[in-house]
Amino acid sequence: MSRRILIAGNWKMHGLRSDLGFFDALAVHAGKSNAEVLVCPPSTLLSAAAERCAGTAIRLGGQDCHTGATGAHTGDVAAVMLHDAGARYVILGHSERRSDHAESSSLVCAKAGAALSAGLTPIVCVGETREQREAGEAFDIVAAQLGGSLPAATGSGIVIAYEPVWAIGTGLTASASDVARMHAFIRTRLPEPATTRVLYGGSVKPGNAAELMALDDVDGALVGGASLDIDAFASIIATAG
Ligand code: PEP
After folding, report:
1. Residue positions annotated with a catalytic role
2. What is the average pLDDT across 161-186?
3. How far is it, in rounded angstroms, from Cα 59 to Cα 62?
4. 47 near 86, Cβ under 8 Å?
5. Does the Cβ of 208 fall within 6 Å of ligand 1?
6. Is the residue at 158 inside a domain?
7. In this structure, which residue's CA is closest to atom 1 in ligand 1?
């Protein structure tokens, strides 16, 4: 079963309206790529980005959502609001949210349910810390995060991103053999293993993307820092052909 490569950019807390020209340049690369190309800008830019990307192959996503659809939750954004602004995906359970906001897997699971109900595809992030890897716990941690973060009726309408925490924003990347082993393991834990895309994230850049994307169980990349640079992001996209 072939799974279309997904190259997703996570802009984190970067991006102003003056950066919207990025999408004009990206549209050229997305339009000729075999990969699905996704950018998750800050929610303040979603509507303007959606207008800018209309008619292009670029897809947009949010970086988090609330579990509810409306309510007294100052500062939060509902999944349905992201969808209304033009998002079709949402990153959930990113390690920065799990650590900065103490998000548990059960909260991520509830958010994923809300996202699915709103018509968004959740990209659920899992990954071990350096201490956990060194203690030989990486597989147990990832299994527990998957078990706790995926709603029961997920089917294949979900994307997983394996992001070893120690590789995010550090310039360190997991070795191809470690990534291959973890992705094969993750696939054994999925309700719809043949059709669910599993992305790798953690310092993906032009110099390592081709090797990582060539691995059997790697169906794309979640890219942080390099997604802010059009040349770097375009050359990562190009590895998908
Ligand atoms: C991320 O934010 O999900 C990420 C993988 O960041 P970076 O590519 O900068 O390591």
Report:
1. 94, 163
2. 94
3. 11
4. yes
5. no
6. yes
7. 224
